[in-house]
Amino acid sequence: MNKQSGIHYLREHREAASTRPVPAEVARIRDTVVAGLGDLLQGAFDAVDDSLFELANNARSNNEQNRYFEAMREIRIKRKGVERHFQNTVAQFFANPPHAGQLPSTEASPQASADTLSLVGNDDLEEQVAFNAMTTKAKAHFQGPLLQLQARFTEIYPDATEQEPVNPMAPEHLCSAFTEAIQALDIQIRERLILLKQFDRYVISNLGMLLDEANRILIQAGVIPNFRYHGKKSQSQKPPATADSSAESPSEATAGYDQRPEDTVLFDQIRQMLALQRSNAGMPPRSADPSLRVVGGRELADMLNAIPLQQNWPETDDLSTGEPVTVDLRQVVQQLLAKADTQDGRQPALNEVDEDLINLVSMLFEFILDDYNLSAPVQVLISRLQIPILKVVIKDKSFFSKATHPARKLLNSLARAGIGWSSSDEKTRDKLYGQIHNVVQRILNEFDGNIQLFETLNEEFEQFLERENRKASLVEQRTRESERGRIKSQKAQEEVDRLLREKVSRYRLPDSVSDILMNGWSRVMFLAYLKDDTEHRWHETARVVDDLIWCLHPHEEDEERDQWVRVVPGLLKSLRAGLEEVSYNATRLDQMMGHLKHELAEAFRTNAAIEARQDAPSDAEDEAPTVHQTAVERQQELEDAAIAEYVAKLDTIEIGNWVEFRLVNGTSFRCKLSAIIDEADCFVFVNRMGLKVIEKTRVELAHEMRRGRLTLLEQGALIDRALNAVVGNLRTKTA
Fold first, then answer.
1. What InterPro entries does UniProt report for this protein, alphabetically (predicted)?
2. Which of 97, 184, 638, 688 is the most exposed place for a label (fewest CB within 10 A)?
3. Half-sphere exposure at residue 481, Cβ-oriented, CA atoms within 13 angstroms
4. How many Cα neighbours within 13 Å face the side chain of 205?
5. Strands 507-508 and 611-612, how do they pair?
């Protein structure tokens, strides 16, 4: 790592940040931070280069490989400019620091607001998600040093106040500066995400040492030297609850149970969109009504805990029986409120936070129960969990923002594990189905509000999956190796037959010569083709055929006859050695070699010629086949053009991806891509147990896709896809 990388630009940074004077201690921090970030950024770019080279090396097509090499070249060319832009922007933060929570006003900076959220597949959304993940993780991991630094910088800058604090080193500012800097790169979203990932890994994750150094410099300068961060207060330090514990304040209802603000950021954004939607619909904001008693989150959770969770499902031992059922959660809650205690004469009612929660959970399950990617049995089982998940989110709203939330992880695991089921008929003989069914059954029977149950169930389920996947992986590996060998052998036989047919069909060879080539030497060529990568004998075996045919031609010139004398002994030796290597019948071998020697000697002695075949069609007869062939080629061109876009889509399928085939009779089955055999451009698919289901060439798959008989299944985390879809729909409605 080049230690001079950051220092090289210090003069530029000082000039760029000279729009206003800064205290000496801030200038010292600025120079240290800019130099340190420059060093860290060197490591990030080196890692990006390695990642792209590895991806290019493992690419399955020339187009994909060229794409990665072009991205690598683009980044190498513009790397210094990106570094310079990033460091200049960071230096500017120290001259004009944005207020906390405010991103610099640049077009390229992703804004953490509801307006930037969009449907799955939108490149901006993917970049926004990566940006939010970086900043959220950094703010949580470096919470103490960041709070100290914010307090000290706020003390230094005259325009800053406690209500509008500043921190030039806030993670959102640094991430925004880098996101803006890489806009100059002409690369696609996948490569851009690799850049952000390595920036997170090498720069943001190592931010702690720079934060500590900045705090140390300010402490030495006497800026709030006695500030100490003690973390979250324990339960015993909280003020005692009031007598009317059911009347929670809005802030308490929103914050949930000891949740950090970053844990509820997505829910807060969704609430803003729901509020805007209500406003667009002309619904006035709810005002305080003395006749209503607001039922808070804790009381509502207690009400839901009293519901027998299986009362809405058919009385059967199999929870996946029937169709997925959407529960009207609003109606369920209204029924609970109607039965609530009204001793004080006030009518129980929900606050807007809990109403929004109910609406959000309902929208999530609408997506889940309409998601074609989910297998039918899992879809039915997950539909049974609507009320438990509502209880979870009322207690812990970080479900929406934290990918590591126990309930969210468990739902994602259930959906991912069951993606390979084609129909409910398979579940009775599958251990996995029994495990998933047991997980749902335990949630319905045991969940009383303690989210630890989801953590326990997820750990048990992951352990089960690990055992099952280990068995399936072994079977799949054997299947893959077997198919590779079979397809390569088939390809070898086709190539041997084609080459011999092409060479032999030109002449009327003696029967003994045709016999030794087609029934003997073809085996030698087959074995050489399979071993060509290691022994490189394929061309040598083909040359033996050419030499044999040449030796049977008439040779009148002395030079040619001398060459014939030199070639024949080696030719006979090669033929015998090759046939013995493939264990050809010894008695028949001697007989065949005797006939061959006789034919060769006769051809040399009498100077007789092997005859070229004269049964080729006449010129007049050639015309019709030519026209017919042209028509076939024209039809083939039309077919190729029709499937071109689908062939390109097949480049997006990766090993391990799941697909669904639909047969002509209406039945369907799901399978996983296990191998792509390059020799035959063939795709091999296996079932969940690793056994081969079907194999198709690329062209055959393209035709299946064109006819609507092949569907690529999305395998992203279920809850993530559901949240993105819900946010996208809300954004569309509020646009």
1. DUF1631
2. 638
3. 5
4. 10
5. antiparallel
Q: Does the reported pTM lie above 0.85? A: no
Question: To the nearest 10°, the Cα dihedral for 369, 375, 378, 382?
Answer: -20
Q: Could you please report the per-residue DSSP string of 493-515? A: HHHHHHHHHHHHTTEE--HHHHH
Query: Which has the closest alpha carbon to 518: 447, 580, 579, 594?
Result: 579
Beta strands in 187-308 (DSSP E): 292-295
Per-residue tokens: 282 = 């002309």
How long is the chain?
735
CA distance 128 to 722: 17
Amino acid at 99: H
Average pLDDT value over all residues in the chain: 78
Six-digit token string for 347: 């009518």
d(CA 683, CA 690): 15
**Nearest of 359, 135, 434, 156 to residue 262 by alpha carbon:** 135
- As given in the structure block, the two tokens for residue 431 are 């251990």
Q: How far apart are CA 276 and CA 61, in angstroms?
A: 47
DSSP symbol at 247? S
Q: Could you identify the residue written with the tokens 């086949």?
A: 625
The count of C-alpha atoms lying within 13 angstroms of the C-alpha of 578, restricted to the half-sphere facing its C-beta, is: 27
Q: How many angstroms separate the CA atoms of 248 and 243, rounded?
A: 11
Distances in Å between the Cα of 36 and the Cα atoms of 17, 31, 84, 319, 709 are 17, 8, 13, 57, 55
For residue 293, the surrounding DSSP H or E stretch is: strand 292-295
In one-letter notation, the amino acid at residue 434 is G
* Alpha carbon distance 80, 77 (integer Å): 8
Residue 82: band (very low, low, confident or very high) from pLDDT cuts 50, 70, 90:
very high
CA angle (126, 132, 136) in 5-degree steps: 150
Residue type, 6: G
Residue 293 has pLDDT above 80, yes or no: no
Cβ-based neighbours of 251, under 8 Å, separated by 6 or more: none
| Distance from C-alpha of 185 to C-alpha of 81, rounded to nearest angstrom | 10
> Whose CA is closest to 197, among 52, 68, 5?
52
**Are the CB atoms for 349 and 292 separated by under 8 Å?**
yes
**Domain boundaries 638-721, corresponding CATH code:** 2.30.30.140
Q: Cα separations (Å) of 11 from 16, 581, 588, 730?
A: 9, 75, 89, 48
CA angle 610–611–615, rounded 5-degree value: 155
